[in-house]
Amino acid sequence: MWKRFAAVVLTAAAVLLAGCGNVTMLQEYSFGYVQLKTGDSEVYLMSPFDLAHVQRQNGEGMMYVNNDKHINIIVVSEPSSEGTPQAMAEKDVAMLKQTPDITDLQTKVADATVSGRTAVTGVYTYDEPLNGQKASLVVKSLFFEDNGQVWHVMYMYRKGDAMGEEVTNHIFGQLK
Fold it and tell me: Measuring CA to CA, which residue among 126, 76, 125, 122 is closest to residue 103?
């Protein structure tokens, strides 16, 4: 009888403890490629979720967005006649520098090759008030050109969010 009781207790403990511990990235997310399309440009981007397709009101091009508790993804396309990937990255940094609510801004912009494409990457960290409280954010941006469009893919997460950082590092630059 004690053996049966011990077996039941051990089984119950195993069931109760099975839910304990940290959820891994691959347990929380199912990754896939989402289609991004504007004009003659069609790109596939790895993402942990679908991206909503939004027509931009202030010009040509498209915007794709979505977020969850760990990461925000924003993708914007603009005609290449608006500028090069390098010029778009510089414009992005200038805009951040001019935003009055942003403090402690650190930026790093570099040329890169991502998934076989010539690109420009940007990594920005800064503090910004969100919902009345200071939030420390990390933004990783990717700028590249494809068939007449310059794409800006932005991944944003809170500094210290290990899952947001892991997801961003897993999907950053995964293009087809």
Answer: 126
CA dist., res. 67 & res. 51, Å (int): 9
Q: Where are the beta strands (DSSP E) in the chain?
A: 32-38, 41-47, 52-55, 62-67, 72-79, 103-114, 117-130, 133-146, 149-158
**CA end-to-end distance (rounded Å), the chain:** 61
DSSP type of residue 23:
P
Q: pTM for this one?
A: 0.85
Confidence at residue 59, expressed as pLDDT on a 0 to 100 scale: 67
For residue 130, pLDDT beyond 70 = yes
pLDDT at position 61: 76
Measuring CA to CA, which residue among 174, 148, 147 is closest to residue 44? 174
Among 73, 71, 101, 88, residue whose Cα is nearest residue 161:
71
Closest CA to 92 of 104, 76, 79: 76
Nearest 5 degrees, angle CA 88-CA 41-CA 32? 95
The angle at the Cα of 84, spanning 87 to 82, to the nearest 5 degrees, equals 90
CA distance 107 to 149: 24
Residue 74 has pLDDT above 60, yes or no: yes
